[in-house]
Amino acid sequence: MVFWRRYSFLNKVIITGSATLCLLLSLTRLPGMELLGIGTNWILIWVVVWSTKRTMFQGAIAGLVMGLIQDGLTGAYPSHIVSLVVVGVLTARLQKQKYIHEDFISVALIVFFMVIIAETITSVQYILLGIRSFQDIWQEYQQLVLSSAILSSLWAPVLYYPLNSWWENNPIRNAKSTKLN
Description:
Blueprint: H1 2-26, E1 34-35, E2 38-39, H2 42-51, H3 56-74, H4 81-93, H5 96-99, H6 103-129, H7 134-168, H8 171-180
Antiparallel strand pairs: 1-2
C-alpha cells in the first residue's frame, strides 16, 4: 500500500514539474527554440501530450488550467484558455491509438495542426475584441503560425517521450489491466 501512495505522489510531482517546466520554457528564448523571433509553444505541447491518451474532459481541464496559468503570466487579452481547451478536447477526441501508431511522428503532426488551430482562435479573438485589425493580423498570421507550428512540432517528442514512458509504465494501470485479464 505504501508503494501505491509513493507512486501516486511521485506521479503528481512529475505532472506538476513538467507543467511548470513548460510554463518556464515558454517565458524564455533559448538558442534553437526560436525562429524569426517566434518561440516554441511549450504549453500547447504539454496539453497535447497530456490529452493524447485521456478523455475529452481531462483534456479540457488540462487546457483550462494551463490557459489560466498562461493568462496569469502573460496577460488575459486575448485569453489562452479558449484555444488550449479546444486543443485539449480535439487531441483527446482524435483517439490516436486507433488511427496512428508511430508515436513521435503522430505527436509531431498533432502538435503542428493544433498550433494552427490555437493561433487561429487567438487571431479571431484579436479581431472580435477589436484589439487589432484583420489586415494587421493577416500580415503576420502566416509567418507566426508556420514558424510556431514547425518549432513546436519539432520539440514535441522531447517532452512526449519521457512523459509517455512514465505514464505507460504506470504500475497502478498495469496492475488493473492484469486483473482484468
